[in-house]
Amino acid sequence: MPSDTPLIEVRNLNLFFGAFHALKDVSLSLHAGELVGLVGDNGAGKTTLIRVLSGLHKPSSGEVYFDGRRVERFHPKLAIEFGMETIQQSVGLCDNLSIARNFYLGREPVKRRFGIPLLDFAKMREASTQVIRSFGLRANVSADDEVEVLSGGERQSIKIGRAVAFRNRVVIMDEPTNHLSVREREHVNDLAKQLRDQGLLVIYITHDIFQVHKLADRVIIMENGTKITDVRKHEMTAEALEQVIRDGGRVVEAEKARAIA
Questions:
Q1: CA–CA separation, 216 and 186 (whole Å)
Q2: Taking the model in full, what pTM does it have?
């Protein structure tokens, strides 16, 4: 169940790139234990909003709160400090490194021998094997194998397993099922629900309103840098939400969903 206090809260957020108004007075609250679908066409502002939350862009005005504390500084380390993990289809892993090395990428454990710091390969191998097995990798895959031998779904499993192992609190899934098979899409979506059920905040970014409607607790639709819809899943059907996207938010009451029992 989602917590009562927002884990992330955004108030009247605006972002300008020169004369371009990228985010326009965006306000929203996101809770731990919630799977939120963030939907919109290219240029809607989804990725820009996530970049603000991750510290890559400083807002021109407005406020961002994490766990009740106002964020004063915006920098790339913000995501690590706040326990955010971003899972994308095309980036995040190095093909020429082993699964174990990828699992600990940027967090490599070190042991000292004669005062000299050395990577602790045994620890990386043991811990990554334990976690990745529980997230769906084939039994014949070793933590020493290079990532290039994995399927798209297995690569996503590593990223998701990494998010859980390092006790992240927010997982941002940016188009995580692009170019995956039907079976792999189902696997990744099941893992997203598992993360939500473990109490994490999951933000699922996609163009596919029908896919996310099956998964999400809430759906937020953005258009031209503006939040135009923020509803619980049962309040609108996927078809009605698709019409909102087509109309850019200009939808009359008669086009809203029949309540789903």
A1: 14
A2: 0.80
